Amino acid sequence: MSAKLIVGYDGSAASDRALDFAMGRVKLQGGTVVLVHVLEWSPYSFLTPSELEERHKRRTEELERAEKALIAPVLEKVRAQGIEAESKIRYGHIAETICNIATELGAVQIVIGRNGHTTLGSRIFGSVAGHLAQASPVPCTIVP
User: In what order do the strands lie in the sheet with 140-143?
Assistant: First the structure.
């Protein structure tokens, strides 16, 4: 079984830097890059059954769109460099979902990019990088 490095990927320049870092490490040490894309989703418990059905349909469409438009081209790029790669796309709280996937897959490391923005929201609620640095079940590398 090869070591798995989780890369939080959202298509941003920061996530591209994280992916480059992870690919460099895998080229040197071996392993598999696992691209993880998380769509945030709030479960509205007060919706009617028909609204929930429509929402589930939209959710499925968003997952398919993320796979096709965002993740598939990047997986192809990574594999073209001779690196083993796979992906996971899920809904949920970003940091918690990345931690859950790392645990499920027995990953050895999580790699994410930091965008450097210091908004009021991230100061109050915390950033994904901050949450992962505190809650990650494995070492977490935050690429500037």
Answer: 84-91, 32-39, 4-8, 109-113, 140-143
